[in-house]
Input
Amino acid sequence: MPEYITAKEPFRFYTRKHLSELTGYRAATLQELRDTIKKVSGSCVYHHTHRFLQQHQHISPEPPNDFAYWITDVLGEDELGEKISSIDIIQFSTIRSLREKIVKTIDEYFKVKPSAKLKFAHPGEEFYFIKSVSFVLPTNYSVYTLSEFIDVLHKITIDSIYFHIFEARLRLEKADNDFSNWIEHSIGNQKLADEISRLDPYTYTLEDLRRTIIRIVERVMAV
Amino acid sequence: MTQIEDYIPIVGQSTIDDLRLLGERLGGIVIQNVNSTSVGGGVAEILSRMIPLLKDLNVDARWDLIKGGERFFEVTKKIHNALHGKVEDINKRDFDIFLETSQKNIEELVTYGDIVFVHDPQPIALIKKRSNNKWIWRCHVDVSSPRQRVWQFLMNFIVKYDSAVFSAPSFSQKLPIRQFLISPSIDPLSDKNKELPKETIDAVLKKYNIAQDKPIVTQISRFDRLKDPLGVIESYRQVKKYVDCQLILAGGTAADDPEGIRVLEEVQEKAKKDKDIHILLLPQSDIDVNALQRASTIIIQKSIKEGFGLTVAEALWKAKPVVASSVGGITLQIKHKHSGLLCHTIDGAAFALKQLLNSPEYAKKLGENGKEHVRNNFLITRHLKDYMLLFLALYHPEDIVYL
Output
């Protein structure tokens, strides 16, 4: 039975807390937004493409992307906002490549609609660039079996789920999320690992993601 | 006294566990908070709540006060207004008074903290005592458009700190030191925000002669032009043509604030022919504010300018649908059409009120979303987390910190 398989290595749950650091950069036009996206740190691009997930975790589905929100709601460029919010973040394994895609999307839009450069935000509605400072620390939970894994998944904070799913993969540039890594290499269940890898976590609220992962693992354990 | 465990039913055991993990990482570090008053004002209120909770998390947080006479505080009041962008007649003599009192505090106050956490401009000059310890300047004021002469005076001190903290992105300035964004918070267990029995709410309404026979729209704010109470009445009048409702404008005004008294008189004059408008000059009663918010169908906050606007978070925490101006920190608390409705004009506010009064299910959903948003982002537990991370950040310059 899958739930009795003991892992070669335990899975240690970590949690990640973030603090927002102000950069002093701001943009009032699309051109300024584009130029500043090019020069800010990766931690800043990461913040604005992931903040929404944590701060608005109860709203779904919602573009996890501050750039798209500002372009649509403040500049009124709905089409570009939609293009930016539809960028399939899960396909990018580095912040660098995600940044390039955002800039390229804006550049292409300028070619089709040069007048978009004329739009500007009213005072007070400018885009303020912020970066995430992440603090990663181990929790007291360490598990050897899928059964224990599910028990802990039920009770850890969503910050912990967030860290293992989003931050580990994109910001720490691991090939896959931590859960799939452990299930594949320590539990030896490639099929279950793949099933979790295939989830597009950007289309779930964090609580939905928790429930979905638990359901997938429980289904496999019941076989 | 409230303990950290008391928040478990509100934010969950795991959130408190994580706070304890952070507290452990700050073992042995003394955090010395310094401000100018132990009672009255938002800073004293938040410190008096947070310091016991930090201690409960095993963080050695302490609190000291600077001293100052009447003239010093007259000057710091002018500085405060100038930071808000108000034209103030501040002369060299004022700056001299500030520096003289600051010098006395520099001589008398012992800065023993491993981290000295200085709140607002009054104690800012203490940085001259800097030795090998870490220093943070916490700005609780909206400095999005400060008077430059005053800001440049303060800059002489600010640049000597390790870090500065602001409440909203738009308050940040170009600075050569690290600056962090930490929003203020509300305490769900305080008198202003705790659950109230229906009898208490009913008693408060009775006290102010407010019937519950029609929907109630409420703005809780001091009587100040920047809160636009006259605009609220105009919005209400537009709504009243279509939906029979009542309006509560409740707040205080300081006896020594002639402008506030003038605004109150204008509001009373504008409202006098409508028995469904209730103008309440509230004493400092948090339970009354709490009850009025809970009794309301919709909360409005039609500010023209706003520091952070925590009355919005208070309303959202009570799962109330909120209509609010898209200014200052309000935009952090409300995402338009998700956790409330934002507006820019009297007409826009009126339209939003009508929408919510006519679509109770939609209004309910916005209120529920708003409550969850506050639970995740604007409760005192998040504030504690941010402060502990801030203290840790002083020892870690990197963007990803492994503790």
